[in-house]
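We were asked to recover a plausible sequence for a given structure. The inputs and outputs are reproduced exactly as logged, with field labels preserved.

PROBLEM: sequence recovery
POSITIONS: 161
GIVEN STRUCTURE:
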């Protein structure tokens, strides 16, 4: 079985994330969407909330599983028997950052490949930060996030973040 890890903060999960994950299932038998619980970011949702939103978003896709992790990504990938890391690319700056990270991960464990998937044509402009900003300013990001994520954002911002 070929397993890939798709790591991220997923704060929150977007339709772009789901597009990358679904497309990765064409290449791999199992895709683990790995929720990093210690990103150096200001998070809106807790690790548990991010996992729940992700699990609901992928409930109908048998090949995708959501799991938390708190180690180096390559160490987590090795621990679940993954042969690859999957990352999505939207822009040239994404490529630069992902290429640098791929080089670091290769230095840490060259047995784990890095697969960079270009954003689908409808999702190149979608980011979690844009989704959060729209929701914070009272606009529902209906073209960018699943309905249950929009509801969670609405609830989060109605309570003051």
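RECOVERED SEQUENCE:
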């Amino acid at each position: 079985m070929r397993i890939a890890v798709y790591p991220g903060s997923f704060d929150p999960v977007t339709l772009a994330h789901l597009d990358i994950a679904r497309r990765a299932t064409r290449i791999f038998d199992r895709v683990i969407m790995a929720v990093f619980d210690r990103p150096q970011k200001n998070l809106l949702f807790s690790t548990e909330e991010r996992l729940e939103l992700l699990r609901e978003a992928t409930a109908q896709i048998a090949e995708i599983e959501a799991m938390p992790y708190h180690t180096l990504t390559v160490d987590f990938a090795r621990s679940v028997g993954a042969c690859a890391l999957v990352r999505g690319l939207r822009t040239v700056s994404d490529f630069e950052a992902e290429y640098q990270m791929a080089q670091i991960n290769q230095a840490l464990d060259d047995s784990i490949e890095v697969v960079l998937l270009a954003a689908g044509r409808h999702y190149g402009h979608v980011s979690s930060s844009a989704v959060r900003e729209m929701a914070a300013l009272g606009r529902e990001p209906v073209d960018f996030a699943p309905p249950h994520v929009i509801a969670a954002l609405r609830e989060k911002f109605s309570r003051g973040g």
